[in-house]
Design brief:
By secondary structure, this protein is an alpha+beta fold. The chain contains 9 helices and 4 strands; from the N terminus they run ααααααβαβββαα. It has a 4-stranded mixed β-sheet.
Length: 209
């Protein structure tokens, strides 16, 4: 099995893609940081757009890198790729690079395996957390008092929401939150209803909306 993984061109290409993502991500982060220093804080939409653009650029560059590196028959072509990389390195550090690669070459494909295992684990945890949070909006809740519901409705009308969320007082939630996007629900912890002033409640509701 180890020999199969080491010789697998897909995993090898994915490993080199992940390694390239380290310096590519660093460059993108530096460019984004420079842009955020130039964009004033009173332009949050533009700052948000720049951040989303940086994330999208990272994904596109990673995909392009993998397409360039991936070769279905990897043995000879991977060796050629490695040789071209080594030829671009100054002579005084070629030998250490070759020695390092030879020492760790058989372990490199395992990096992509560990990465995929981590992705699967984090995705599973995200799914579990999603259903756990979604369940908060359907269990252990109370209907808001008429005065609170009226204030909530006024805020919805004030910011012109196209889909009106449902307001519920949660007995389990510890912080205010908005759950769902097809049938959005705003959850307000019961402790906050009695522990905050009307103006503070309005600020919290407006934030979630």
């Amino acid at each position: 099995m180890t020999e199969t993984i080491v010789a697998h061109s897909l995993l090898t290409s994915l490993t080199f893609t992940l390694l390239h993502c380290l310096w590519q991500g660093t460059v993108i982060a530096v460019v984004l940081k420079s842009l955020l220093l130039l964009i004033p804080h009173h332009r949050p939409q533009l700052r948000y757009l720049a951040s989303c653009g940086a994330l999208l650029t990272s994904i596109i560059i990673a995909c392009l890198t993998f397409v360039i590196l991936y070769q279905p028959s990897s043995d000879g072509q991977n060796a050629q790729q490695l040789a071209s990389v080594i030829n671009a390195i100054p002579d005084n550090i070629v030998s250490p690079v070759e020695q390092t690669y030879q020492a760790y070459a058989e372990f490199l494909p395992w990096l992509s395996v560990m990465w995929m295992v981590s992705i699967c684990f984090l995705s599973l945890r995200l799914i579990v957390d999603f259903f756990r949070v979604s369940n908060l909006s359907n269990t252990d809740y109370l209907q808001p008092e008429p005065w609170l519901q009226q204030r909530f409705d006024n805020l919805v009308a004030q910011i012109s929401l196209t889909a009106k969320p449902v307001l519920r007082i949660s007995l389990k939630a510890t912080v205010p939150m908005a759950v769902g996007w097809m049938k959005p629900v705003v959850l307000l912890p019961a402790s906050m209803v009695t522990g905050l002033s009307n103006d503070q409640l309005e600020m919290l509701l407006l934030h979630e909306l």
